[in-house]
Specification:
By secondary structure, the chain is an all-beta fold. It is built from no helices and 12 strands. The protein has one domain (2-122).
């Protein structure tokens, strides 16, 4: 497995036969996030949030370890092409089940952005 940065987001690249995320429950603030949870937005301010495009959402799949760093994984499709393409967004996170921030690195992996995960907007 590897992580690539494209168009301002981090994506998980992996062999589908080897992809087996740990089905881990997380807490983003007071919100319980279990595999299958659908999220519209993580964070509340433009500079420290990550939001799905109109008509789409992120679905939490679990966590993976890539290069000794724990990442939470979200799949996403869009309404014009549901199910045909699956993007897996990944964010580095601390080893706790109650992270306050997720980290999204830039293309050079030398810096990036903190995403405030204490505020989350779910899709009901």
């Amino acid at each position: 497995m590897d992580i690539v940065n494209q168009y301002g987001a981090n994506y998980l690249v992996c062999n589908p036969l080897e992809y087996d995320p740990k089905k881990e429950t997380l807490f983003f603030g007071d919100t319980k996030i279990i595999p299958g949870t659908k999220i519209k937005k993580i964070g509340d301010k433009k500079r420290n949030s990550f939001e799905a495009q109109e008509g789409s959402f992120f679905k939490y799949e679990g966590t993976v370890i890539v290069k000794e760093v724990k990442h939470c994984v979200f799949s996403s499709t869009w309404k014009d092409n549901p199910g045909e393409f699956i993007y897996r967004f990944v964010f580095a996170m601390s080893e706790t089940d109650r992270p306050e921030f997720l980290f999204q690195s830039n293309k050079t992996n030398q810096s990036g952005a903190d995403i405030d995960c204490t505020k989350v907007t779910l899709i009901q």
